[in-house]
TrEMBL record:
The lineage of its organism: unclassified sequences, metagenomes, ecological metagenomes. GO terms for molecular function: S-adenosylmethionine-dependent methyltransferase activity. Keywords: Repeat, TPR repeat. Residues 324-417 form the Methyltransferase type domain. It comes from hydrothermal vent metagenome. This is Methyltransferase type 11 domain-containing protein. Pfam families: Methyltransf_11, TPR_11, TPR_19. Gene3D superfamilies: Tetratricopeptide repeat domain (1.25.40.10), Vaccinia Virus protein VP39 (3.40.50.150).
Length: 487
């Protein structure tokens, strides 16, 4: 039997003894003040003495979610719900935890339960709106955010969500208005300031967007998000000197920012061996939802189709293939190869890209991770094809990948990939102002010979557009000898 809450004493981290209610009050104060680890420690101490205290379980679960321990958060909040299933906030926060691990169906169910238990809690409608937006149901998201605003006028999270929903559903002017409403009563809201600039850009009011960010940075010079958006605008408009100056200022604020460092290296002409993982993840997670339509419709991207054609010209095998799709993205290459495979594995650094690839239902294995580490964990001579479509634009030094491809391929196996063409063919590879690498024909042929590949196909091709101008690269298909493979 647990003792009554008032009689039970809790040893606090400072050596003081408090009753359970006093300890909870202290923990909540820490929690509300942003001292989440200290709050979590006190909740844990309370639960050692009162293991069925639902509020402590719930709040410890909330703290764990805030600390990135999502599965532990789900476990704790579900445990609180078993003790007291009729507390709406428990279900609402459970929904947030499920959303954090990408289980949107369970997130929606938990949040819907919260709303059914308390129709007057605006936080639940905000979370429901966020889940609906992630699922692409913008009408449902807009409806939920509006309900939250009926319950709490000028609720900032609801206005931000409503504005985002309008932007994503191409109602940009209406979205811009929501952000301006926030700034009317909270001029220093950085999220709203950032989104105003995004909306102006989407409306093609480029000069206004740039001036907006410059003015915002003048008033809030320590906000990295404002710099990042201004840098994007400058790069988009080919105003590279101004972008570089902004990047230098940003790096004074955030000296460990690998993404900013990579972008500055690109603009200053300093070629590194590879783009940092953070840079790749940020790019592709940020636009995973619109990735395919943007590539195909705006960039004229058809590398998967072109590589498939090149591969089929280079091998007579048409079935039962074991294929590794490096940097698989949303699965465009996998869809091309799916009919020819008995086993198809994909790897990508960006979790959201992998989520989209999973919906294609063509992969036997999908992994979030680094391509070289992924390759090292595969058995030698286990693959018929290793393919990398538009991947090596983020890797300059390719020796390690070539070495692993040689080890993994069975006799006669195919190594197929695309690269951007280096502007300077005298260099092995160059980091361009775009942040992407270009490779020289000479370098690729040197690697082909070094690792014993046979050239089956090597063609210059128009691989994409950049600001409506063609970008050229090489489509390559190399093979192993029929007699040997592996390292």
């Amino acid at each position: 039997m647990n003792q009554p809450l008032n009689s039970q004493k809790i040893l606090m981290p400072n050596g003081q003894y408090l009753s359970v209610p006093q300890a909870m009050e202290r923990a909540i104060l820490h929690h509300q003040s942003g001292r989440v680890p200290r709050a979590a420690e006190i909740y844990s101490r309370i639960l050692k003495e009162q293991p069925v205290y639902a509020d402590a379980k719930h709040l410890l679960g909330v703290a764990k979610r805030q600390q990135g321990e999502f599965n532990e958060a789900i476990k704790l909040i579900n445990s609180a719900i078993k003790i007291n299933p009729k507390v709406a906030m428990y279900h609402n926060n459970l929904g947030q935890a499920y959303r954090a691990v990408g289980d949107l169906n369970k997130a929606k169910a938990a949040t819907s339960k919260a709303i059914s238990l308390d129709v007057n809690m605006p936080e639940s409608y905000v979370n429901f709106g966020a889940i609906a937006m992630e699922k692409g149901d913008f009408d449902a998201a807009i409806s939920a955010y509006k309900k939250a605003l009926v319950l709490r006028k000028n609720y900032t999270d609801a206005l931000l969500g409503l504005g985002d929903s309008y932007l994503k559903s191409d109602q940009v002017e209406t979205g811009l208005h929501q952000f301006q409403v926030i700034l009317a009563y909270a001029k220093g809201n950085i999220a709203a300031l950032t989104r105003v600039g995004i909306a102006l850009r989407l409306l093609d009011r480029i000069d206004e967007a740039i001036e907006h960010y410059k003015k915002s940075i003048f008033h809030f010079p320590d906000e990295a998000d404002l710099y990042n958006n201004l840098i994007y605008m400058y790069q988009r408009e080919n105003r590279f000197e101004e972008a570089a100056e902004c990047l230098r200022k940003l790096l004074k604020l955030t000296p460990d920012d690998a993404v900013a460092r990579h972008n500055l290296n690109a603009l200053e002409g300093f070629t590194t061996s590879t783009a940092p993982a953070e840079y790749i993840r940020e790019i592709f997670d940020n636009y995973a939802d619109n990735f395919e339509s943007h590539l195909v419709n705006k960039l004229g991207y058809h590398i998967p189709e072109m590589l498939l054609e090149a591969i089929l010209k280079s091998t007579s095998k048409r079935s039962g293939l074991s294929v590794l799709d490096l940097g698989c993205g949303t699965g465009l290459m996998g869809v091309m190869l799916g009919d020819y495979c008995s086993y198809l594995a994909g790897v990508d650094l960006a979790p959201k890209m992998i989520e989209h690839a999973r919906t294609k239902e063509v992969y036997n294995e999908l992994v979030v991770g680094d391509i070289e580490e992924f390759m090292k964990n595969k058995e030698s001579a286990s693959c018929d094809i290793v393919v990398a479509a538009d991947v090596f634009v983020y890797i300059g030094e390719l020796n390690a990948v070539f070495s692993e491809a040689k080890r993994l391929l069975s006799p006669g196996g195919i190594f197929s990939f695309s690269v951007e063409k280096a502007v300077d063919e005298k260099s092995s590879y160059v980091l361009n102002e775009t942040g992407r690498y270009g490779h020289s024909k000479k370098f690729l042929q040197k690697l082909q010979k070094k690792y014993g590949f046979i050239e089956r196909y090597f063609e210059k091709a128009h691989i994409r557009n950049n600001h409506d101008k063609p970008v050229y690269g090489y489509l390559c298909v190399y093979s192993m000898s029929e007699q040997c493979s592996g390292g």
